[in-house]
């Protein structure tokens, strides 16, 4: 199911190609469909997190280092 702000499928393929090139990741063209599907799932999950209302008093969690 696509959202109104989703890029067209060709745009997502171009983004995947560009990101792989920037990161110097060899990319088998057969993987582009699966990568696009995973990005769509991650975008939907991120939208749920972004929509979660937080009170103004909420503070960022401290950073723990081991």
Write up this protein.
The chain has a domain at 26-59. 52% of the residues lie in helices and 0% in strands. The chain has helices spanning 9-22, 32-51. Helix 1 (9-22) packs across helix 2.
Report the principal-axis shape. Answer: elongated
Major beta-sheet overview: none
Using the CA coordinates, give the radius of gyration: 17 Å
Low-confidence stretches: none
Number of helices: 2
Structural class: mainly alpha
Index terms:
AtzG-like, single chain, DUF4089 domain-containing protein, 66 residues
Short description:
This protein is an all-alpha fold and 66 residues long. It has helices at residues 9-22, 32-51.
Topology diagram in text:
Layout: H1 9-22, H2 32-51
Helix pairs in contact: 1-2
């Amino acid at each position: 199911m696509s959202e109104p702000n989703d890029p067209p499928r060709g745009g997502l393929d171009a983004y995947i190609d560009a990101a792989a090139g920037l990161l110097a990741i060899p990319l088998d063209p057969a993987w582009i469909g699966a990568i696009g599907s995973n990005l769509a799932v991650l975008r939907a999950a991120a939208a749920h997190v972004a929509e979660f209302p937080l009170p103004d008093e909420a503070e960022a969690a401290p950073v723990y280092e081991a």
